[in-house]
């Protein structure tokens, strides 16, 4: 079951809830460089902090990113995802001119869909290793 250190506690709850999230770029365009991914990780860590979510692992490739999050029961995964995608799209397109021009005016960075998988049955170390092995583009 794990050690007590593996669990998080709130005022009235003790929990251990993880999800593996995958976001794909709109039209699967291969637009990300390592610089984009580094900045995106910073942005997504800040959004997670606002939700009291731990971003345990982040990695990505030219057209998608993987996140492993540890979240409290009060957080709706759909609301977290909407915020992660919305804030990262807005900030990255504002900060990186090349991302602004990769899509025409008003088109968001991310596809409207996403993958969210519960990681309760898999060892967290296995999911972490999988995400770590996703390669970042060489730029």
TrEMBL record:
GO terms for molecular function: DNA binding; transposase activity. InterPro entries: Transposase_17 (IPR002686), Transposase_17_sf (IPR036515). GO terms for biological process: DNA transposition. Residues 14-134 form the Transposase IS200-like domain. Transmembrane segments: none annotated. This is IS200/IS605 family transposase. The lineage of its organism: Bacteria, Bacillati, Actinomycetota, Actinomycetes, Pseudonocardiales.
